[in-house]
Amino acid sequence: MKKTRLNWLMAMTALGAGTLITVPAGAESEEEIALEEVVVTGSRIKRKDLSGVGPVTVLNEAAIEATGVTSLEVLLQRLPAAAGFGGNQTSAYWVSNGWGTPQINLRGLGVNRTLVLVNGRRVVFGGTGANSSVDLSMIPMSLISKVEVLKDGASATYGADAVAGVVNLITKKEFEGLEVEGKFGMTDEGDGEEYLVDLTWGASSDVGNIMVNMSYQDNKASPLADDSRAPCPLFPDGSGGLECGGSSSTIGGRATLPAGATLRDGTILTEPTRINFNQGSGDGDFYEPYDGSRHSFNYNPYFNAVQPIERFSFTTLGSYNLGDEARLFAELMYTHRESMQPASPATLQDIFYSADHPTNPTGVDFTLERRRLLENGARDFLQEVDTWRVVTGIEGTINDHWSYDVAFNWGRNTGIDAIANNINMQRLGETLDPDVCGSGGIPCGDYLGFGDVTQDVLDYIVFNQQGTGGNEQISVSGNISGDLFELPAGMIGIAGGVEWRKEKGWRNPDSLVVAGLALGNQADPISGTTKTKEVYAEMHVPLLADMPFVQSLDMDLAIRYSDYDLFGGDTNYKIGLNWQASNAIKLRGTYTTAFRTPNVPELFGGVSEGNLTTTDPCSGYAALNSSSTVYQNCQAAGVPLNYVQLGNTILTDRGGNPDLQPESAKSMTLGLVLQPLDGLSFTVDYFDIEVEDAIRETPGSTKLSICYNSPSLSHVFCGPGHHTRNSVNGDINYLSTQKTNTGREVMKGVDFGAVYNFDTEGLAHSLDVKATYLAKYESTAFDGDEPFEFDGFIGGGNGGYPHWRANASWTTSAEKWSGTYSVQMIGSGDDFNATEGVGSHMKAVFYHNVQFSYSINDAMKLSLGVDNLFQKNPPYVASWTDGNTDTMTYDLAGRRGYLRFTYRLK
Question: Are 383 and 415 in contact (CB under 8 A)?
């Protein structure tokens, strides 16, 4: 029944869209010209020419509405300038200190290097404690009037964190009337239902204005159990398809018996032997040689392609005129978010059994390496997050030539995160101790073989863990801008200001987690505060005007001095040139520096553990040439020749580092703007970014690959502080990816854009094409080391860095209707770790989206849309995160349709 409804919805949408043809979602306007002087992202000086401040992508309200998107992270992550690791409803597991937190990662340089503003001011970090990025779910789309994305370093203008660029979310202002909007959507599988209701009311008069927005969103889960969502179905039924390995954490439990051991039946082992215990044969003491094809565990049915989220937001924006030239303004925002991610049953690991233990059927000392506790069922990860933001101040003008503002900005985020059905390891140990169990209410547990764990044991060892945390930001700022004096080429504009800022983050894990007694989730508390004092100045200087080949030549200068309580002072600057050669040709360029201090979780975040997607380069190394570096290194490390990594995750330490130092950056952009015809423009912008002493959490796969490809294991990543191995079977039993200052990161590429607006046959048409080519992205751990390449690669916990990303849209509109067809392209790429075989190379993926809107009358509008129109499934990625693909790069939900109704009473 659900599929029937969706197919009808798709048919109506396709009929309404007609024959519109185009290419990627997120219709955007690169060079939107403002008619009046306004402050635009990238400068504090009021100006008319938006294109003069650098490569800015502008998404106005009409363009946003045409996409049909109702979540900011989807809108922003579709931009070609977005890449790498970022949180969303698909990759909700991979966000440190904030499961379920949606984020934006410009250039793929990191969410902590992308500065997110609301109306030009900072926003408190989100998540469930001591986070380092803004929770985009706190800002409803119905509140947004325009999104400006500056794809250039802007630390001289905005301070720390603006290394990769700035996202400025501009809210609606002076809203008149009442608007109610509702949306319903679901996937082609009949799940993933989306319910959205927005209410906006506003009024204004000579005294001032007020706007109130309330938004409720409830997105249901899209389970991954359907094989169509997993690009490589586990355990195919023989009808064809690709068989991928499951988890080596088996439901019976696996172990490695050492060479020379004598079994209880008298068998003597001549080599280390992996065994697996009973998986349901009925004989609790049965065990046999481990065979991944029979014993591996398929955990895809326990995961979601898209996680559920429920959000309520309340926002009030207003101003009160204090006179003709001054007004009091205020912004109040509150958001409550509840999100959940199911997880597979918990895995016991590294439990020692003596030969004489009463439940040990082997008669040999061994360590139970992995045992999936299926008897206990699935786990659930849950979060409840509340975020407040209050901004108030005075703004005004002086003599019509100067403007000023003084503002107080306070934000606070608090969260509770929980894991249901986790294991108390202290109690589990008691159930294994023959001297303790069986009395005092402590049952004896038998964990060797599926079905042997009784309900009494589960009742004793299972608990629900809960942690709390939050973030707080306080800032006081003052800005002034105006005209200084006039030169022959025009008026010199200046801006200046000061800011004091305090940022605090904390996280208090469950007491059992802190004590290391909760299964697989040891974590230390986090608490820290940073303070910053800043002063800046900015100047716009017209150099030449009204000359042959020089309509105008302007220079932009900015400088900012920052004093950090933990790291001292630093100065950053920006130099920009804009040369308007004619009405059709403009050239622009900027050179900026940046200084980013470690944030609270990077500095004060304690060590935590987690099973992370990791590829061991020594797995199957016997098939390599014996003279190869990897072969020789794996043998030198004592890895058995027949070693094969079991599963694709390794228990990994991660967390903060109090010895971190600030990172510095330099960025340069060179751009060309062509406008050969009215309504037609082309933009090309080259970017070159270099980060020194970069703060990075290097993924385990990357560290291992670099180590075992270095001559004679000479790389620093080969040291015991980075990883160790089990001397019996070669498994990695310790791996650390704690944050460090790497030597250097270099990124180069080109942004392309084309916009064509024209009218024909009484219809208005708009074609918008954007693309980013990532030519180079390399990270070097220390001076003299071989760089690690990111460009052109996908997976391995890094996210996606294909050379090409693009999107485009075609919109046709008439008086009462409009239709938009868009396509998002994610370019081809190679797996970070696999060099051959299935999943080592991913072809380019195209997602087609369509929307049709019809105005029933002046007050009512109906919109129909389908995303991922042709049901493009994600590709199989060898170094996958979840669902056999890269959840940070590809769409897992599949085709989904929606209907939206808007009622506006003015």
Answer: yes
What are 818's two structure tokens? 């409009």
Q: Are 617 and 709 in contact (CB under 8 A)?
A: yes
CA distances from 78 to 153, 168, 796 (A): 20, 16, 21
Is residue 124 pLDDT above 80, yes or no? yes
CA–CA separation, 538 and 496 (whole Å): 6
The three-state secondary structure class of 824 is strand
**Could you give the CA distance from residue 481 to residue 538 in angstroms, rounded to a whole number?**
9
Q: What pLDDT, on the 0 to 100 scale, is given for residue 93?
A: 58
Q: What confidence score (pLDDT) does residue 196 get? A: 96
Tokens of 224: 């991954």
> Quick check: 743 and 618 in contact, CB under 8 A?
no
Question: Is the confidence at residue 6, as pLDDT, over 50?
Answer: no
H/E element holding 902? strand 896-905
| CB crowding 809-824: b at 16 or more within 10 Å, else e | bbbbbeeebbbbbbbb
Which 8-state DSSP code applies to residue 72?
A: H
- Residue 155, Ramachandran bin (φ over 0: left; ψ between -120 and 50: alpha; else beta): alpha
Residue with tokens 């400006």: 148
Confidence (pTM):
0.87
377: left (phi over 0), alpha (psi -120 to 50) or beta: left
The pair of three-digit structure tokens given for residue 586, joined into one six-digit string: 């403009």
Q: Where are the beta strands (DSSP E) in 488-549?
A: 490-508, 526-547
- Residue with token string 């004093």: 563
Q: Find out whether 393 and 134 touch, Cβ atoms under 8 Å.
A: no
Q: What is the pLDDT of residues 796-809, one digit of tens each?
A: 888 999 999 999 99
At 75, which helix (H) or strand (E)? helix 72-77
CA distance 409 to 472: 11
- Residues 192/221, Cβ–Cβ less than 8 Å: yes
Q: For 419-452, what is each residue's pLDDT tens digit?
A: 999 999 999 999 999 999 999 999 999 999 999 9
**Residue type present at position 480:** I
Q: What is the DSSP letter of 38?
A: B
Number of H helices, E strands in the chain: 11, 45
Residues in a beta bridge with 550 = 547
**Spatial separation of the C-alpha atoms in residues 73 and 487, rounded to whole Å:** 44
Contact 151, 121 (CB under 8 A): no
DSSP labels, 656-674: --TT---EEEEEEEEEEEE
**pLDDT tens digit sequence for 667-700:** 999 999 999 999 999 999 999 999 999 888 788 8
pLDDT in tens, 283-334: 888 999 998 888 988 887 888 888 899 999 999 999 999 988 999 999 999 9
Burial, 805: exposed, middle or buried (Cβ in 10 Å; 0-12, 13-18, 19+)? buried
Range 619-632 average pLDDT? 93
Q: Closest Cα to residue 248, out of 646, 757, 694? A: 646
Domains and CATH numbers, the chain: 2-229+305-344+381-424+463-597+662-699+737-905 (2.40.170.20), 615-661+700-736 (no CATH)
Which three-class secondary structure string do you get for 416-453?
EEEEEEEEEHHHHHHHHCCCCCCECCECCCCCCCCCCC
Q: Rounded to an integer, what distance in angstroms lies between the CA atom of residue 39 and that of residue 493?
A: 12
* DSSP notation for 101-137: -----BTTS-GGGEEEEETTEE----SSSS-SS--GG
Q: What is the dihedral of CA 281, 283, 284, 289, to 10 degrees?
A: -60
Tokens of 400: 């019509």
Q: Which of 579, 892, 820, 746 is nearest to 16 (CA)?
A: 820
The label of the residue with tokens 């998404």 reads: 59
**If you compute the radius of gyration of the chain from its CA atoms, what whole number of angstroms results?**
29
